[in-house]
Amino acid sequence: MDVEARVRVVDKVNPNSQELSDSLFKRGDVLTVQVAGWPWTERERTNPAWRIIRINGITRAQADNLVSQDTPRFEGERIIRRRSVKIDLDGVEIQQAERDKLADNGRAEPVITVPTADLIAAVKPKPARP
After folding, report:
1. Is there a domain that residue 54 lies in?
2. Are 125 and 85 within 8 A, CB to CB?
3. Measured by CB atoms within 10 angstroms of the end CB, which terminus of the chain is less buried, N or C?
């Protein structure tokens, strides 16, 4: 199946709480996966913290893995959830031309196509929680 993934390209932080920052989306976290050709909103297409990456020929299991979550944990009355994998956007698996497009805040290409094999190779387990 062909999909598009909205991916965070910068860490989200809470300047007042390191503990909360640790649970927020980070660079390489996939926020959502939609079918290719999804009608992304203007905000989704232009937010400097996000990029939309097209992935052709991915399996349903691979797509589901991109948004899989660790086992939730409770901290007081809050439930903390986070992704169990991330896309290593700086790794050698992603070619330099695609890394340049991911860094382009001008969005010459609103949807960036990354070769499927490269992207799947760049999916890494996230380190253990602090």
Report:
1. yes
2. yes
3. C
